[in-house]
């Protein structure tokens, strides 16, 4: 999505939070393994299928046993946050708190 928009809105939000809270930010921990279609017009079930095995954890040493804040720009069904959190937990994160800037209207 970065190449489409020219910026990563979640990374911009994360950088501001990182500075304000004096906590480290790592943009390179979760890596999307394939180019998944946009989730916008997909049902919850289709979103889950779309994101199945779509992320891997890099630099596991940066998350093992740690408490993480997972940031997303918009929450619609929660599928992306849940998929990412599950991937991080399976890689050894002690706990994951998620935060979103906005919620999609239904």
Written description of the protein model:
This protein has 106 residues and is α+β, with helices and mostly antiparallel strands. Helices cover 35% and strands 23% of the residues. The chain contains 4 helices and 4 strands, in the order ααβαββαβ. It has helices at 2-5, 9-21, 44-51, 79-90, and strands at residues 30-32, 55-57, 67-75, 95-103. The radius of gyration is 14 Å and the shape is globular.
List its salient traits.
alpha+beta, two-stranded antiparallel sheet, 35% helix
Summary of the model, kept short:
With 106 residues, this protein is of the alpha+beta class.
How would you summarize the topology of this molecule?
Elements: H1 2-5, H2 9-21, E1 30-32, H3 44-51, E2 55-57, E3 67-75, H4 79-90, E4 95-103
Parallel strand pairs: 3-4
Antiparallel strand pairs: 1-2
Instruction: Kindly report how far apart the N and C termini lie.
Output: 23 Å
| Arithmetic mean of pLDDT | 87
Overall body shape: globular
From N to C, what is the helix and strand string? HHEHEEHE
Please state how the strands of the largest beta sheet are arranged side by side: 1-2
**Quaternary structure classification:** single chain
